[in-house]
């Protein structure tokens, strides 16, 4: 039913509704750190602002995300959804030729990577893809 609505209800819509109705409810527990809906909403808003302001991201621009399994992945995804940017999820264990192929197939012109992945990913110079890191990581 939700998908037949016009416009369709997205995961971003559902998340934002929960953030409005239940801001202090737990959403994510990572190691010893608990994140509420409000925490994640605030961080994703800051990330969206930084991505737009510092990297000039606009809706429709595909972005490759090369992040490990950590909370920053969640608010990066939400930030990109808020900007209207399709996200190409790259497995942070993939390297070399397989990573270059994934980037080419995604059609991304920008790749976001955690500081630990930058320079160690084995992708060398990939034509047309700029690499960027912003302070989106978990505290």
UniProtKB/TrEMBL annotation:
A Pfam family annotated for this UniProt entry: AMP-binding
Domain of life from the UniProt record: Eukaryota
Gene3D superfamilies, alphabetized: N-terminal domain of ligase-like
GO molecular function: long-chain fatty acid transmembrane transporter activity; long-chain fatty acid-CoA ligase activity
Domain AMP-dependent synthetase/ligase: 15-113
Keywords: Ligase
One GO CC annotation: endoplasmic reticulum membrane
GO BP annotation list: bile acid metabolic process; long-chain fatty acid import into cell
Annotated catalysed reactions: a very long-chain fatty acid + ATP + CoA = a very long-chain fatty acyl-CoA + AMP + diphosphate; tetracosanoate + ATP + CoA = tetracosanoyl-CoA + AMP + diphosphate
Entry's family note: Belongs to the ATP-dependent AMP-binding enzyme family.
Cross-referenced PANTHER family: LONG-CHAIN FATTY ACID TRANSPORT PROTEIN (PTHR43107), LONG-CHAIN FATTY ACID TRANSPORT PROTEIN 2 (PTHR43107:SF4)
Name of the protein: Long-chain-fatty-acid--CoA ligase
Organism of origin: Sylvia borin
Classification lineage: Eukaryota, Metazoa, Chordata, Craniata, Vertebrata
